[in-house]
Amino acid sequence: MHLNMPSNDAACLAIIIAAACDVGVNKRKRKQRVWMKEWLKKRSLFSHANLLKELQVSSPLDYKNYLRMNSTTFGELLALVTPYIQKKDTILREAISPKQRLFATLRYFASGLTFEGLKFETAIAAQTLGHIIIETCEAIIKVLKKYLKLPQSENEWRNEAEAFARKWNFPHCLGAIDGKHVKIFKPPGTGSYYFNYKHSFSIVLMGIVNANYEFLMVDVGANGRVSDGGVFSNTAFCKKLVEKDLCIPEPENLTSTNIKLPYVFVGDDAFPLMENLMKPFSKKTLSNEEMIYNYRVSRSRRIIENAFGILASRFRILLNEINLCPEKAVIIVLTCCHLHNFLRHYKVESYYQGGIDVENINSGEVANADWRADPTLLQLQALRGRNTTTVAKQIRAQFCNYFNTVGAVPWQNKIFQQ
Predict the structure, then answer these.
(1) Buried b / exposed e along 326-344 (16+ C-beta atoms within 10 A)
(2) Which of 153, 271, 321, 370 is the most buried (most CB within 10 A)?
(3) Helix/strand/coil (H, E, C) string of 41-97?
(4) Largest distance between two CA atoms of the chain
């Protein structure tokens, strides 16, 4: 620029520069409005955090229904995960607090809302929720891992078997095993890889439950297309079971008898009959003794049906198609299972109340749990054409004989006389 520029030219140049600066400022303002909507900035005003404070004082039951736990349990869980999800404030914005992050995650599970729907309850942008919820899930799994683990010694397995015998009259039973399909949106570029027998896309949740409706093991992530027998045989648990690498005690005499039988799990027709895995007789014509055996197995299996029923009815996200990539869907399902055990451990009644079938042993009638009136997770298909070892058949026959003689319960014959 020349210093001797005429005054008119200088004035024009100044106007142009000022206009350009004004355009730049307006662009920045427009970008900021897109980056963060005004109502989202007022999170403390518009989120449901204030509603929760009111419910905590005036309506504790509604608080429990809203988050599937009471305020005390929420506080304990918050204290555990805070070190892993705490973020620092910056000059530009205030960080979303651990409490808000945990609230958003639990509400996502309980409501089954999408991130887009959940943003109106949390005043957190949908894209941000996607990051927050997965990060919080990973923290929950980390801090609750002690609540979901297989027994690590023979004595621990014996303790599980003793509890099973007391509650369900099935000696040497270590737990009930089952699997469910959890629906997901079709991942891009995967073709029919996750396409299941019910013509939806899914991943498989395999679980073992103890006598107290708590998961001892979960295996999540097998694609829904895999045959159900293949799902089980490909789990790390099955491989360890076959290789006898689970610290399960060797066969022992049943209490007060000289009948030596192995410790076993119970499953349904989706699973193979194995030396350590009992299932019902599936032939069309059954003897009275075989029907009694099937009843005793089915009665023991009811615990995992109820566990899955409680899990899905309380965490409604599992009943919807999870609109995340399979890897993130696995994290969601695993977190729900860890929370299930955590809430069972703390005996949060609102979580499982009404969620368990109740059998009247005098009449043989079963009062169905409340979850049976709702949609449920998709069951695994029955396994067909599987070769069974002679030893496995002999073990089942011995259990059948035991349940019809010294191991009979007073009411079992009444059930088939009605």
Answers:
(1) beebbbbbbbbbbbbbbbb
(2) 271
(3) HCHHHHCCHHHHHHHHHHCHHHHHHHHCCCHHHHHHHHHHHHHHHCCCCCCCCCCCC
(4) 117
Give backbone dihedrals phi and psi of 246, rounded to 5 degrees, phi first.
Answer: -115, 10
Asked if residue 346 and residue 289 are part of one domain, the reply reads yes
Q: 188 and 135, same structural domain? A: no
Q: How far from chain centre, in Å, is Cα 365?
A: 29
Distance of alpha carbon 214 from alpha carbon 342, whole angstroms: 9
- 320 and 386 belong to one structural domain: yes
User: DSSP string spanning 127-161?
Assistant: HHHHHHHHHHHHHHHHHTGGGS----SHHHHHHHH
d(CA 214, CA 207): 10
Q: Is the pLDDT of residue 39 over 50?
A: no
Enclosing domain of residue 116: 39-143
Task: Report the distance separating Cα 152 and Cα 396, nearest Å.
Answer: 26
Average pLDDT of the residues of the chain: 87
Q: Which of 108, 123, 143 corresponds to the end of one domain?
A: 143
Query: Can you name the residues that pair with 176 across neighbouring β-strands?
Result: 209, 266
Supply the pTM of this predicted model.
0.86
What SS3 class is residue 267? coil
Rounded to whole angstroms, how far apart are CA atoms 139 and 141? Answer: 5
**Distance in angstroms (rounded) separating the CA atoms of residues 284 and 48:** 55
Q: Pick left, alpha or beta for residue 191 (phi over 0 → left; psi -120 to 50 → alpha; otherwise beta).
A: left
The more confident residue out of 253 and 44 is: 253
Q: Are 136 and 101 spatial neighbours (Cβ–Cβ below 8 Å)?
A: yes
Cβ contacts of 185 within 8 Å, gap of 6 or more: 201, 321, 322, 323, 324
For residue 32, is it within any domain? no
Q: Taken in order 255, 258, 264, 265, is the CA torsion positive or negative?
A: negative
- 278: which strand partners? 266
Q: Which two tokens stand for residue 256?
A: 């007060």
Q: Are residues 91 and 178 in the same domain?
A: no
